[in-house]
Design goal:
Length: 483
């Protein structure tokens, strides 16, 4: 008798875990609990061709090592893709769907059954009675339609779903002229031609929203706004380097409590850059223009003329920071990351040059503005739309407000009865161990419940990245199949 594994979630992270586990020896069954077809989750389940990955084909893979599976998949189907490309996200969804079907066929041929319960999971609890025949604990997952499923191991592969509403708009929640999230993007496409849109957010999903709203000569106009007004930096690739550039050993050795931490960290990162591009200092690779549109144009020029050498150090930096910071206690991790939030969001989450070019073109026609601050006042008009005022300008009328201001991370929590809740209703935030187990606290017994990708955000700093989930899946599969 082998293990019965339950995977909660059905997006890319669930598929990377499944491909590792379903074909491993000693697994009797894998049961997905997910409300949609496996592979087609939130991030990559879109059908909108306008929405591009912000990660290159090289790292948008279900396997962290070896050649990119996505590149092999695209090339075999005649797509002229290279490892540097930022492909439409729907292609990653199709890739995940097919990889799932292939792995399921292989698993079935080896005697491992795969089931899919189309529902959402609500809670997980360890059964009181241990299975003596199998000499293992069993876990019961309760679904939102009242069904229950039991297994020996539970993998939590939730994505980002609950949009964050900016403070300024909380009291207008539910207003018909307020879209709380830019996804699904068809809701943006349905806005009337010529609509004037105030778009909250200047990061990745706001850029998606602006490009969809302004696509195909829609005649719409968009004002993007955020507290910083800062757009991400621009890149032409995010790939694993052919040879190591970063002094990984030195970075992993840095003491997070040292008063010299920031200087030492900067020295290591600049050292990697100067090894890669010896005669080009960081100031000549980036723009410091105060105006967001000017900075975008300058960084687009730097990226497309091969001057942005920093981009080649990013993939290694993400992997190393995740490895370095994972063992720390939560407070240390939060403190160190908070000090470096600006470069993390600007450079680690940079945008593809193709998107930057389209943004710059919309800005040049006057269809897109980027406001450097939030409006001072936003009021609904009695006859529809909104009146908006900035400190330094006249009142303006917009027809719709769209929020693209990020997501709440999944909140796993335990109740006093030993039940793990997936929606934060349990009361006590779950602890994630260094080996990615979900427990009630650091001293609690290790459970066979594992967090992968975004669900592990309380342990791993940079989780909104398929490669991080693929690394998690590799680690969890190794522990799960070789206890
Ligand atoms: C808009 C967007 C764009 C992104 N672009 C990129 C990119 O280009 N490159 C990259 O590497 N990363 C990107 N990311 C980050 C992305 O979240 C991760 O890469 C991740 O790998 C996506 O897979 P996932 O399975 O976590 O999430 P999802 O694809 O969101 O899938 C998770 C699924 O879990 C299901 N679920 C949620 N709650 C429950 C429950 N209680 N029970 C059962 N099922 C549940 C949901 O229905 C959801 O579809 C993007 C994220 C977003 C939001």
């Amino acid at each position: 008798m082998g293990k019965d594994v339950i995977i909660i979630g059905g997006g890319a992270n669930a598929v990377t875990a499944y491909t590792r586990i379903a074909t491993a020896p000693g697994i009797s069954s894998v049961t997905f609990v997910a409300p949609h077809p496996i592979g087609l989750g939130g991030a990559f389940g879109t059908t909108d061709p306008e929405l591009l990955c912000n990660t290159s084909v090289d790292v948008t893979s279900l396997d962290p090592e070896g050649p990119s599976g996505l590149l092999t998949y695209l090339t075999a189907r005649g797509w002229p893709a290279t490892r540097d490309d930022f492909v439409p996200r729907y292609l990653v969804g199709q890739f995940c769907r097919e990889r799932f079907r292939e792995a399921r066929a292989t698993a079935q041929a080896r005697g491992t059954a795969t089931h899919h319960l189309t529902a959402r999971a609500e809670t997980v609890r360890r059964d009181e009675d241990r299975d003596e025949d199998r000499d293992e604990d069993r876990y019961t997952v309760r679904l939102d339609d009242g069904r229950e499923v039991t297994g020996s191991d539970v993998l939590i592969c939730l994505g980002l779903e609950r949009p964050r509403l900016p403070d300024q708009l909380r009291r207008h929640r539910g207003h018909p002229d307020l879209l709380p999230s830019p996804y699904p993007s068809r809701r943006l496409r349905e806005l009337p031609a010529g609509a004037r849109v105030l778009l909250y957010g200047t990061k990745l999903s706001a850029i998606d929203a602006a490009l969809v709203l302004l696509a195909e000569d829609s005649g719409r106009s968009v004002v993007m706004t955020s507290p910083s007004g800062a757009l991400p930096a621009v890149r032409t690739r995010l790939c694993r380097p052919d040879k190591a550039l970063l002094d990984t050993a030195r970075l992993l050795d840095l003491d997070p409590h040292s008063p010299h931490l920031d200087t030492r960290l900067a020295r290591i990162l600049l050292g990697a850059l100067s090894r890669h591009a010896p005669r080009r200092g960081i100031r000549r690779q980036t723009s410091t223009a105060a105006d967001p549109a000017e900075r975008l144009a300058e960084e687009l020029r730097l990226a497309t003329t091969g001057a942005a050498a920093w981009q080649d150090v990013i993939a290694e930096t993400i992997d190393t920071i995740n490895e370095w910071a994972s063992p720390w206690d939560r407070r240390t991790r939060a403190d160190v990351l908070a000090r470096h939030r600006e470069p993390i969001t600007r450079y680690i989450s940079a945008i593809p040059a193709a998107n930057a070019r389209r943004l710059a073109a919309h800005h040049a026609t006057g269809a897109l503005e980027v406001a450097a601050t939030l409006p001072r006042d936003v009021r609904p008009r009695p006859d529809g739309g909104w009146l908006v005022r900035w400190d330094d300008g006249p009142e303006r009328h917009v027809d719709r407000i769209v929020c693209a201001t990020g997501y709440h991370a999944p909140r796993l929590s335990w109740d006093s009865g030993g039940r793990l809740h997936l929606d934060g209703a349990g009361g006590t935030d779950a602890h994630i161990t260094e080996d990615l187990r979900v427990t009630p606290g650091p001293a609690a017994r290790p459970e066979r419940i594992w967090a992968i990708g975004a669900a592990a955000h309380r342990r791993t700093p940079i989780v909104n990245y398929l490669r991080t989930a693929a690394i998690h899946a590799r680690e969890v599969a190794a522990r799960l199949t070789h206890p």
